[in-house]
Amino acid sequence: MTTDLSKTATDLFETMRATNPLVHCITNFVAMNYAANVLLAAGASPAMVHTPEESGEFAAIAGALTVNIGTLSPHWVEGMIAAAKSANDASKPWVLDPVAHFATGYRRDVIAKLLELNPTVIRGNASEIIALAGGQSAGQGVDSGDPVEQAEEAARSLATSQKVVVAVTGEVDFVTDGTRSVRIAGGSPLMPKITAMGCALTALVGAYCAIARDQAFEATVAALTNFAVAGGIAANSANGPASFMTAFVDGLHNLDAATFHQNARIEAL
Ligand SMILES: Nc1ncnc2c1ncn2[C@@H]1O[C@H](COP(=O)(O)OP(=O)(O)OP(=O)(O)O)[C@@H](O)[C@H]1O
Ligand SMILES: Cc1ncsc1CCO
Ligand SMILES: [Mg+2]
């Protein structure tokens, strides 16, 4: 099982390089530049398109859509809803990043509306996933206050009730579709010290979903493994968070399939 998932993830990694999928990203002001560079380095083609005047039209063209609620405003929310509806109509996968959705009434309203539009994948940190499943999390803002293990049951129940793939990230990541579950190890403790690392990962989950449209679970596992492997390599040459940011983009760009497969640490549960 472990070997199969590593092989599938490696195959998808190679497909990414060969096909350069177009990914529609509606992300936050903090993440926009870094997420776009991460996607380019990983072999995808990002487009940051948020205004409702065009977001619906663009979602139908792109291979996948990603929606991140990090820096909300009403006009952007209209753009997110139009894009998600259009992705659904065009049978395109879409990925939701529920940044700090529990923090304010406005965020709670917006996340409820987006959840009604049936995302294909939800990717968040442990506090976000615990709160999304109705539990009490220790999170206050965009950073997690809870360990991933504590979010595993919440992730399973959310995956089952919403019929969605759920990815919980942290020191060891957890992915479930409600039936199958895996843990993915690797990466670096420097990763949560860089803002928007998770937002960039959500965008990459979208890229993998674009190339594996009917395999959202496998696509999500591949994206998280790509981050874990490139993160582990980048940490070897970084002196701290700032140099890690650039080493990570280089690590993604320079990664080859053999190294990906060798360093993938996917445990099927
Ligand atoms: N302690 C750690 N060790 C190794 N990897 C980590 C650690 N913490 C986070 N990561 C990795 O960092 C990436 C981002 O995950 P994280 O859970 O920090 O996202 P996030 O909290 O949503 O981030 P942000 O909101 O700042 O974008 C994932 O690839 C995850 O595996
Ligand atoms: C710091 C921050 N604030 C809103 S979104 C964001 C990026 C990390 O989620
Ligand atoms: Mg986040």
Automatic annotation (TrEMBL):
Cofactor(s) demanded: Mg(2+)
EC number: 2.7.1.50
Keyword Cytoplasm: no
KW Repeat (keyword) present: no
One of the Pfam families matching this protein, by short name: HK
Reactions it catalyzes: 5-(2-hydroxyethyl)-4-methylthiazole + ATP = 4-methyl-5-(2-phosphooxyethyl)-thiazole + ADP + H(+)
Broad EC category: transferase
Tree of life domain: Bacteria
Pathway where it operates: Cofactor biosynthesis; thiamine diphosphate biosynthesis; 4-methyl-5-(2-phosphoethyl)-thiazole from 5-(2-hydroxyethyl)-4-methylthiazole: step 1/1
Binding site for substrate: 48, 196
Any one GO molecular-function label of the UniProt entry: hydroxyethylthiazole kinase activity
Keyword terms of this UniProt record: ATP-binding, Kinase, Magnesium, Metal-binding, Nucleotide-binding, Thiamine biosynthesis, Transferase
Residues bound to ATP: 123, 169
Family named by the database record: Belongs to the Thz kinase family.
Described function: Catalyzes the phosphorylation of the hydroxyl group of 4-methyl-5-beta-hydroxyethylthiazole (THZ).
UniProt-listed NCBIfam families: PRK09355.1 (NF006830), thiM (TIGR00694)
Protein name (Swiss-Prot/TrEMBL): Hydroxyethylthiazole kinase
Higher taxonomy: Bacteria, Pseudomonadati, Pseudomonadota, Alphaproteobacteria, Rhodospirillales
Name of the gene: thiM
